[in-house]
Amino acid sequence: KNQVEQSPQSLIILEGKNCTLQCNYTVSPFSNLRWYKQDTGRGPVSLTIMTFSENTKSNGRYTATLDADTKQSSLHITASQLSDSASYICVVSAVTDSSYKLIFGSGTRLLVRP
Amino acid sequence: NAGVTQTPKFRILKIGQSMTLQCAQDMNHNYMYWYRQDPGMGLKLIYYSVGAGITDKGEVPNGYNVSRSTTEDFPLRLELAAPSQTSVYFCASSYSGEGKSELFFGEGSRLTVL
Hints:
The complex is a heterodimer of chains A (about 110) and B (about 110).
Chain A: E1 3-7, E2 10-14, E3 19-26, E4 30-38, E5 45-51, E6 56-59, E7 62-67, E8 72-77, E9 86-96, E10 99-104, E11 108-113
Parallel strand pairs in A: 2-11
Antiparallel strand pairs in A: 1-3, 3-8, 4-5, 4-9, 6-7, 7-8, 9-10, 9-11
Chain B: E1 4-7, E2 10-13, E3 19-25, E4 31-37, E5 44-51, E6 54-57, E7 64-66, E8 76-78, E9 87-94, E10 104-105, E11 109-113
Parallel strand pairs in B: 2-11
Antiparallel strand pairs in B: 1-3, 3-8, 4-5, 4-9, 5-6, 7-8, 9-10, 9-11
């Protein structure tokens, strides 16, 4: 069964600190992996998209890594800011029946405190 | 630069009532989607459309209907609302099929059925 598991469920860090969010997936055949940021009461916004051949991708202070062999991804946030407080959602694209399907993780809720 | 616009943002329905969630996009995207997001769960696909006049069921279509008469609009109809339909609904659009290209989400519509 195609699944995307994220950890931790929630995380509290102090402003200025770094943190790493984890995503493990059991999706096959794999097409790409995305990280989205969802502010409270808003829709998800894309941070990165990585294909099988990419193992690192950055977007400002956000750096995503992908290990397609172990089916793991991480999102590293550097020098956190209060505006980083949000849910971060890992999404994996699977190829099924000649079409594509997105499998969403349940997200990691990050709170950055001053 | 509106992107994907959803209305209403909030709505309370009584059991058995019907309503339509509106979604419009101004990016000339062929693909449009409706997702629901329940607490602690990943987004689930309700219906999608690959172009005007073409719609198809997603993972959780029961209790919902859609239409796509124009490229811009993709309304979601709830018939005979039930408490199980209490959720946050997101409309999204993309240039091509969901697994291949970037998804742009609306701000969401929070629906409560009492």
